[in-house]
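> forwarded from #structure-qc
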């Protein structure tokens, strides 16, 4: 476990001391490694305090392809293609920490969200919510900000993002030209928005 991960885990545990629920937003552009890092952070916290941390992925709130339709499907992943109101509602329920809350989880290979894919229980005192737009300074995403006790933003250089995103599309069966097109005409446009239009976080993670 890296020293910065250990330090951050202790930092969050100290900040959450005495609170029944402590909500952390982990934001960043596509390809920044939010899912990977949130899982590592959750594991690190649970090694120190077993069973106290869990992750809620924003991607579970993608609108289904059938809802988006042919016109919006090419831009799936843009801010307006998520059920922000549904996410807000679930985060409010999670914040109350009075009963288990089932949340959806996005299945990337199948390109769909699985309802009730993860259960957040009152025992999960620290809940890490990860996603691109959690700190976006635009409505309706602004409504989420007050729900977070601590905010983190993953900083990654654009050239690294491009390399990761192209590889992601290649692994999902795209040819090289298709991977480049999706990376530059979709993902990196969303990355630019996240980098330029998110509110300042409590802490940056590079």
């Amino acid at each position: 476990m890296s020293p910065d991960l250990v330090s951050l885990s202790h930092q969050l545990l100290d900040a959450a001391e005495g609170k029944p629920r402590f909500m952390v937003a982990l934001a960043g552009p596509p390809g920044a490694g939010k899912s990977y890092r949130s899982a590592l952070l959750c594991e690190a916290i649970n090694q120190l305090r077993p069973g106290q941390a869990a992750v809620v992925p924003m991607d579970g709130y993608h609108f289904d392809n059938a809802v988006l339709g042919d016109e919006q499907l090419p831009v799936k992943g843009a801010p307006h293609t998520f059920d922000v109101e549904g996410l807000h509602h679930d985060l409010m329920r999670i914040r109350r920490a009075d009963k288990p809350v089932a949340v959806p989880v996005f299945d990337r290979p199948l390109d769909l969200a699985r309802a009730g894919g993860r259960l957040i229980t009152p025992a999960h005192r620290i809940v890490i919510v990860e996603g691109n737009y959690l700190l976006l300074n635009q409505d309706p995403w602004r409504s989420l900000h007050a729900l977070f006790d601590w905010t983190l933003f993953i900083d990654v250089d654009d050239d690294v993002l491009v390399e990761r995103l192209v590889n992601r599309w290649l692994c999902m069966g795209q040819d090289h030209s298709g991977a480049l097109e999706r990376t530059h005409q979709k993902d990196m446009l969303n990355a630019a928005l996240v980098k330029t239009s998110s509110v300042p976080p409590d802490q940056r993670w590079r």
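QC bot note: Residues 176-197 form the longest helix (22 residues). Residues 62 and 126 are 24 Å apart (CA to CA).
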